[in-house]
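Input/output pair, single chain:
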Amino acid sequence: MKNLVRTTTFLAIVACFLWSTAFATVKIGLLYQKPFQFAGLRFIISGILIFIWLGKPIKYFREVAIHWKFISSIAFVQTALQYAFFYTGMSLVPGALGAMLVGASPLFITLVAHFFSENDRFTLNKSFSLLLGIAGLALITLGRTRIEIKNHLEWLGMLLLLFNNFLSGYANVMIKKSPSPVSPYILSSASLALGGLLLLIISIPVEGIATGPFPLPYYLSLGWLSFLSAAAFSIWYKLLKRPGVKVSDLNIWKFIIPVSGAMLSWILIPGEKPEIISVTGMAVIALSLLILFSRQMKLKKELST
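Output:
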């Protein structure tokens, strides 16, 4: 059991499941606070939670001081800029289209890895797995909501979400290729806190300041989102730095996010129920992940012989 919970596959699934819970809880928080301010507070708290969990303040601040340039670049790209594009883009496009574009991020991340990492190229097996995953995602999304493009702002929103996907891939490659020996936990903590601070500063002239008081659901939403960000990003950064783990292979597991998100919606949201087309989409995504997993097992077996 101990060996299972330490595997890349298991930890990737855990991180993706945590991220999948964000969609419903973000909606609750945004009922009471503007997007940039809410996201900024969320990531600042996330960084603080990891800092408290590490429990080594002297080592923490020493590593941050040594590697501040790399940490700042990840904070700017992965947290501040990416989430600025994400929240702005999602506010301009229909929900179903936004979910499909964000859910297709493994394809864009694989494209970035192909061009920026010498040992992470497209293969026939990987390409087939990606295409199956995107087909399954389209079935889940299009089966639940009709998509209509009504104005030019929606095209801008689509462009911003595509940039969000490319930034995610670029940040993943930055972390994977970086020779910096900074701890992935310190990296996730400091970059989340700094990126959150940047978002909070941006929010003041753009959105104003929401002072509250807020009801209990807001604080529960903020607390859960802060925890899941702390846990998921820490796991992900740790996996990216593992020898032999490729950015593209790891990110294909993100196809789990829309599947898990849909299942949680069926369980938690009144009126939401499974549909044949959505279940079919989930089956297609499961097949894409099975193909990926079998490929990884085959490569692992070849390396061990």
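The CA atoms of residues 42 and 226 lie 5 Å apart. Residues 2-298 form one domain.
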